[in-house]
Amino acid sequence: MEQTGGEISDKVPGFIAWMDTPSGKVPQISTTLSNVDHLGACMARWGINRMGYIVPPGLYAIGTPDSAALVVVTANYKMSYDRVRSALSGRNLWLLVLETFGVNVWCAAGKGTFGTGELVKRINKADLQKVLTQRQLILPILGAPGISAHEVAKRTGFSVQYAAIRADDLPRFFDHKMITTPEMRKVSFTTYERLVLIPVEIVLTLKSLALISAVVFLIAFMANGYSASVVMALACLGAVLTGVVTVPILLPWIPFRSFVLKGLLAGLGWCSLLYYSVGGCSWDITTTAAAFLGLPAISAFYSLNFTGCTTFTSRSGVKKEMHLGIPALGAAIMVSAVLLAVGRFL
């Protein structure tokens, strides 16, 4: 551990006591989550203290592990730490927490913080060679992109075995001779799993959403009066929320693999709903063209934020879509603004 004594015990969620090992004292932790833990997870889902929702990296004891006990490795994002420790209830294991700066295993592996260098560093800092007689580490499958198993073995003498995608599958993994079944390798992305990701996306867009809505409202108010300004602000608000909320919820059912196309299609749906709800039949041609060009583009832009959360996008694919999609969406929004300005003087 990088800190000692009261400093570390105050910061370790579920701290029970200190456990003596050949390399020094290690925090023994509970596998039961408290109301504070659940509240903290809820707040993190809404973006409150999200990047500060971490635990100190280092070695922890679950139950009363001995020198032959296995080591489970996870990230120091507290939600990951909590899911893993709660899944290991009733077992005697070591938990090695890597410094990922509050990022979950999957994203940290992509960024390189859940990586070979960090794993080797933590093994050495914890003096695992002194603590253990066995030389095996159990890692999450989603951490594999960041780990070079042969390099870890070469530099530390510890072998790497990948257990499962989800922490909830760890009990089955250990109870079935540490065999990873095909089901443990499958990544799910259910409606609920998508829903829990939406709150933080909403919070992240609040500032830009408030600014955009205010600017649109003022411009429309000066140009066409109060009624037009309300409609335009509502139009922009709905377009943003369509990309942030509707697209994630309906993700599997919206055609196309591309998030730009998914967002455009959902945005067209919102624009059509708005058009028929506020009497769009009375709009002039430039206003109608601007709405059906600009609003879907706004929805598509915000739907792109969800690419990093999905289970079927690759890093190269996301980069390609961003490279092609963002300029096109920006151009569409600019043309929409020009059409509105032209229509004002016709």
Secondary structure: elements and pairs:
Elements: H1 5-11, E1 15-21, E2 24-29, H2 35-45, E3 58-62, E4 71-75, H3 78-87, E5 93-98, H4 105-111, H5 116-125, H6 128-131, E6 136-139, H7 149-156, E7 159-162, H8 170-175, H9 191-195, H10 198-224, H11 226-249, H12 259-277, H13 285-303, H14 315-345
Helix pairs in contact: 5-7, 10-11, 11-12, 11-13, 12-13, 13-14
* Continuous helix count: 14
Shape: elongated
- Helix vs. strand class: alpha/beta
Strand arrangement across the biggest beta sheet: 1-2-3-5-4-6-7
N- to C-terminal distance: 71 Å
Count of structural domains = 2
Strand content: 5-15%
CATH architectural type of the largest domain: 3-Layer(aba) Sandwich
* CATH class wording of the largest domain: Alpha Beta
Instruction: Count every beta strand, where a strand is a DSSP E run of 2 or more residues.
Output: 7
Q: What value does the Rg take, in angstroms?
A: 25 Å
Mean pLDDT score, rounded?
89
Percent range for helical residues?
40-55%
Instruction: Give the uncertain stretches in residue-range form.
Output: 1-7
User: What fold name stands as the CATH topology of the largest domain?
Assistant: Rossmann fold
